[in-house]
Design brief:
Blueprint (H helix, E strand, L loop, with lengths): L1 H31 L5 H19 L9 H25 L4 H26 L6 E4 L8 H24 L7 H20 L1 H12 L2 E7 L6 E8 L5 E3 L12
Antiparallel strand pairs: 1-2, 2-3, 3-4
Helix pairs in contact: 1-2, 1-4, 1-6, 2-4, 3-4, 3-6, 3-7, 5-6, 5-7
């Protein structure tokens, strides 16, 4: 079951990235191009963004670290929040600031690709981490998560009710109608990412599997924090223990 969840979640991340990239390119097209040029912009920019992001990806180490495993869950949730508020903001402010915000959104999308690689952990052959099966949110945290997204819905309703007062061009007005749907869509699709971020916050132990650095055997176990706050292997199996005589 865990294997299917792993593939399903990574497919969801890739689909999420594709949706974000399309929203971003259409947003740029609505802001800086004529309506009939928008799809031409999207057709050109999407492959360029994907290719440039792929070229920026450097080779990763063989061992996944617990610190980055957890921080990656925090970062990706924050990225979606920044993108979701930067898109409508860039539509109403002055052009020079709008360009800056648009660049920030593009940078967030490039970082999102790194996050997908980290979630997939395809380059980690010697040591790969995952959440324990028993890891879950408390009832209070689950309610807070739902309340947070409800508040975001209300916030966007208020934002898009106010923004027409600051729109001076037809392109901005047309883009505002597009973003009204896009921001709510991003908010809904980001719920699993925020769920994982809270799960990472709760996490005191992590499962791992890989190859033992000394015996080179298949290595499966649990990591936990020691008294100093460092993540260490929790009770190494007998067949991997090295005794010095």
């Amino acid at each position: 079951m865990a294997r299917y969840s792993y593939y399903f979640y990574n497919a969801y991340l890739c689909f999420m990235y594709f949706i974000l990239l399309m929203i971003f390119t259409l947003h740029i097209g609505h802001l800086f191009f004529k309506p009939n040029e928008t799809w031409a912009c999207a057709t050109f920019l999407v492959p360029v963004m994907v290719r440039s992001t792929y070229d920026c990806l450097s080779s990763q180490q063989d061992r996944q670290t617990a610190r980055w495993f957890l921080w990656n869950r925090y970062v990706v949730a924050l990225l979606l929040l920044v993108v979701n508020f930067a898109l409508p903001a860039s539509n109403v402010i002055e052009e020079e600031y709008s360009i800056t915000l648009t660049i920030i959104v593009g940078t967030c999308l490039m970082i999102f690709v790194f996050s997908i690689y980290e979630h997939a952990a395809t380059t980690y052959h010697d040591f790969r981490l995952s959440f324990p099966k028993k890891a879950k949110l408390s009832s209070f945290q689950f309610c807070c998560l739902i309340l947070f997204h409800i508040l975001l819905v209300i916030a966007f309703l208020v934002v898009f009710r106010i923004t027409p007062e600051y729109i001076s061009t037809y392109q901005s007005y047309y883009n505002n109608q597009f973003l009204r749907i896009a921001c709510h869509l991003i908010n809904i699709m980001s719920i699993p990412l925020n769920y994982c971020a809270v799960l990472a916050w709760n996490c005191e132990k992590l499962n791992f599997k890989g190859i033992h650095p000394v015996t080179k055997r298949r290595w499966v176990g649990v990591m936990k924090k020691d008294k100093k706050g460092t993540w260490v292997v929790d009770v190494e199996p007998e067949d991997h223990r090295i005794f010095l005589v």
